[in-house]
Amino acid sequence: MTRKTVTEQYPDAQPDLPPRTRGVIALFEENCTVCMLCARECPDWCIYIDSHKETVPAAVPGGRERSRNVLDRFAIDFSLCMYCGICIEVCPFDALFWSPEFEYAETDIRELTHERDKLREWMWTVPAPPALDAGAEEPKEIAAARKTAEKLAAAQPGPEEAAVQPGPEEGDA
What we know:
By secondary structure, this protein is α+β, with helices and mostly antiparallel strands. It contains five helices and five strands; from the N terminus they run βαββαββααα. The strands form two sheets. It has a three-stranded antiparallel beta sheet.
């Protein structure tokens, strides 16, 4: 109360935002499997997803064909969205991310429904994840993979051991 108030001159001076700012939701389309979890869990029902099934031929001869979902439409109506982040949290394939961008105002409310092309553009503004804590213990998956690799390396003979081992002699047939 003893200091003078400072008014941010917003359009001229951009605000310094915290690193985990919730701005707009970005879509990493390659990771989306059209599981519909985000649309089902959204309390505002502001996510619209359309897809179709596509048959993938067998990978090996005699194998069976597989079917997979193909994303046709992924849209978020930001005029309805309450920015709760539930869709981002429930996505099992990391297809949705928070972008710190907040300047997407429109003059027409119908333009606040962003289709997948627009949501893909926001992906370039998503910051990199924070670095892992140096004092944290290693994830179980990485530790198990490292132990397996060490066992395989110990089981295989090194170059000096391979030279010492006797091979088939020319006179033996």
